[in-house]
Amino acid sequence: MTESLPINYLTYPRGLRCWLLTLDHKRIGVMYLVSVAAALVLGLLFALLMRTELIAPGRTIMGEDTYNRVFTVHGAVMIFLVVIPGIPAVLGNFFLPLMLGAKDVAFPRLNLASLYLWWIGALFLLLTLAFGGLDTGWTFYTPYSTSTNTNVLAAVTGVFILGFSSIFTALNFIVSIHTLRPPGMTWRRMPLFLWGLYATGLIQVLATPVLGITLLLLAIERILGLGIFDSTLGGDPVLFQHFFWFYAHPAVYIVILPGMGIISEVIPVFSRKPIFGYRFIAYSSVAIALIGFLVWGHHMFVAGQSVLASTIFSALTFLVAIPSAVKVFNWLATMYKGSIELAAPMIYALIFLFLFGIGGLTGLFLGTLSVNVPLHNTHFVVAHFHYVIIGGAVIAFLAGLHYWWPKMFGRMYNQTWARISALLIFVAFNMTFFPLFIMGARGLVRRYYDYSAFLGTNPEFTLYNQLATIGGYLLVTGLVSMATCLISSLWTGRPAPANPWNAPGLEWQCSSPPPPENPPPPAQVGDPYDFSQLAVPATL
Amino acid sequence: MIGCWSNAVSIGSVVIAGADLQRESFWLPPPASSTAPAVDSAFLLLLGISTFFFALIVLLGLWFAIRYRRRPETGPLPSPSHNTALEVLWLVIPLGIVGVIFYHGFSGYLQLRTIPRQAYEIEVVARKWSWLFSYPNGHKDENLHVPVDKPVRLVMRSEDVIHGLFIPAMRVQMDVVPGRYTRAWFRATKPGEYNLWCSQYCGTKHFDMRALVIVHRPGEFETWLADAAKARETLSPVERGRELYRINGCWSCHSIDGTAGTGPTFKGLFGREVQFQDGTSSVVDENYIRQSILDPQAKVVRGYQPVMNTYRGILSDEEISALIAFIKSLQ
Amino acid sequence: MSNADHHLVAGAEGHQPSLAHHFSSHRQQYEAGKLGMWLFLLTEVLLFGGLFCAYAVFRANRPEIFIWAHQFLDKQLGALNTAVLITSSFTMALAVRCAQWDQRRLSAFFLTLTLVCACVFLGVKYVEYKHKWEEGLLWVRQFQPAEAAASLDESGTSDQQPRHAGIFFSIYFAMTGLHAVHVLAGMGAIGWVLVRTLRGHFNRQYFGPVDYVGLYWHLVDLIWIYLFPLFYLIH
Description:
CATH architecture of chain C: Up-down Bundle
Helix content of chain A: 55-70%
CATH class of chain A: Mainly Alpha
Strand content of chain C: under 5%
Helix content of chain C: over 70%
Largest sheet of chain C: none
Number of strands of chain A: 0
CATH topology of chain C: Four Helix Bundle (Hemerythrin (Met), subunit A)
Oligomer: heterotrimer
Structural class of chain C: mainly alpha
Largest sheet of chain A: none
CATH superfamily of chain C: Cytochrome c oxidase, subunit III, four-helix bundle
């Protein structure tokens, strides 16, 4: 597929061994892309099984124990294998050094180690599937997780190892940004994607170890009976929730911050205008990262936490909403008076604004103390975080993938096909998850195998569930169409020029795909959002 | 001033939601408790604000995408790349708005969490996968009976994992945690039957762990409670056993009609020979049933998981005998 | 240091085996490694931070358990171990200093001394754990302190054993156990730089690994300095 192209990182050096032992951040990024995509397929498979079960009330295709395992594995795979490593490990790895003007990340071997740890962690999760399954929900709440007969140990080991993978990637990014910037690449000239990765890295480094120790304690609890989370032995099961959410809430920002960084790259390029309010966007990422550490208690408003604690956590939760709102307004202002081309990446960016808008605003409902009470643990929460995580992070990932695809693989994809896939994904996503808001508000509890008992007061739930299930299938169809469009471009697409979008970023200055060795940093680093020297490309 | 604005927004939301606070709404279930209106008004306030901002974002995005679409002859129009005053403005305005929302949520939450001192107390026990409600006169029931227009305090504990008591119509939700007591309260405003769900994932029958909330008309609650307590005293051992089977949640795992559940069915169990997981077998007699209630993991019937908790300290000897009599009767 | 320095130095140094290709100077490489190490130490602090939190929660809720149970810990052995670890931090610092000055033999000598101290620490820890094991002073589920508790009661130095007293030993074993694992990991790392020192890998320009391992070792030491009073010296 790439024979006709000059020497590049994909073709040189050849051989599987050279790939598996590579220290090149680009190859590691590509291997991460393939791995994360495979995990995504697995996660989607479980999502479809779950949705199929719910298409009709009562038993459809599986029993309740199977269903509990299916939603648990769906959650664990999607969170730990797909969305947390997603953007940083794939696009971050590939583009951070290129955008920074560095030859590689600071610790290439550690970078490769992080990929291997991901593989080992994924293997453990697969082993969990093969031996006993897992039925705790991805949150591993004690004492359920210490008393269930399913294979919690293998799963916890896997997630523990994945935590190290995540820490290694983050550590690499932070050190690279601090020490590998070439002269002229000041903090204020850094592309916003890198600011996003930097803020993400801070969270990964600070929060992941707490998940590590929590899961370690859970594992020892199961093996030895340590008792720290076991009320019959004098321990405290709610302490587990505090520890867990101290990681898992910031983890939401691990997922969304790099996505916001991508949107901040895509919107200026396809509006031909400098990003509006660079400083506010850059600093708001760091602000989200830091305040994000102080809001974990909003997952525990109904866990018996004191009124004072809940009040403080609610107030801080509202505070963390502000930087996100600022970013949205700044993106809109960037489009104002621009020259907007609705290429596939830009379509995804607009979809992001729509879906993340809903995800973020419904977050306000859940952050509001009184409103949280009837919505907690319902499908409203499920809908909310899918709007944030798919509507935000996954859509942003797709925006980034379509934006950088020509650079990564040296081929242009079919724009029309890509746009239609994007629209299908958009429509299907809303069809799948919007009904969940309504059912949740009307009281449908999450992680319920059957909703028959609700039909007496809410006969429309069957219809909503049918919509959601059909939407789910359409969503997967959209994703398959999107992937086929991109992958087929490797054979049928026309070769990509070095800078197909006429973008000002450093990563567009080398050939597509990039050579094995990154080009040396330019003598002069310009403004990453200065379009004045670049021609406006013709409409696609 | 703030209140005035939020009222205006609430009214706007009512229009969006296509309903008013008292009647059936598209979103939350019909309210049935004294605290529900505070929750619902905050919900509607949020619905109004977020619909406004969502529309703003989407309409601006669409309008810009159309109005400023790329044309071959023109590039981008001159416009500033930042404007500190404007940015501070759209940082401060949302800050003020979320301040208002926070205050509404906080005041409603205080109502939900401040239990009136004279409230009628009902003890709640949650376990896999059923509820048990104990009334001050000693009566126990698998459903929650409450008087209308009287505050009721629920003092809750769990016998195994974390559960969640959730009554959507009352806007009540609180986790039930092993090893500690949690409390919730509500004052029902409309007689009728409402659903109570388990909201915290607790395993196999999590979805089936529900109870009814029966709100009695004025005066009827006391009559019901007295009758229920009296009925218990006059029961035969088999009827007493049936009663215990019901209120202790045995039914959530053991059927009495022969269908397989999480545990073996009780129908035809007594006197049958059963195989255990360790390969041994024995005939089900009084002693085996007693052992299985007090030490359920000792001999688990083949094909079932060892998931049952002990009822030591929960059932008295007399109650165990009544249960045995009940199981004997199911031939 | 300004970024321009990197490139000036880079020109002078050219390519050396100890300089990875993606760094432009030894200084840049050293600083990257150092920052990476500090970040790693930060993750370690947070890893232990979870346990310190658990300690704080249980001590605040059940102070009587801590007062009662800490009497079973041997203050003398704890103090001895503290002294041993502080000494090892000192010898480690000297080893780093020698590595920076290109004194390989002396550096290797101090690294060996550090290793010896670490072994002594683990030896004392073994004696303490063995004693607890024999007395049944273990984590909650294995907590069967009948004899020890009885003897303590007779001597009149103790109140009645509080309920769930084993939770103290759960936390004790979790924290000191995780710390011991870190000591073991540290010994591995010291052994690694010791071998590299003996093979002459380090010089005035390239001594980063010794320095980083030194930082790690100081952290391990520091954590023990918190553990000692929190468990042994309770009033």
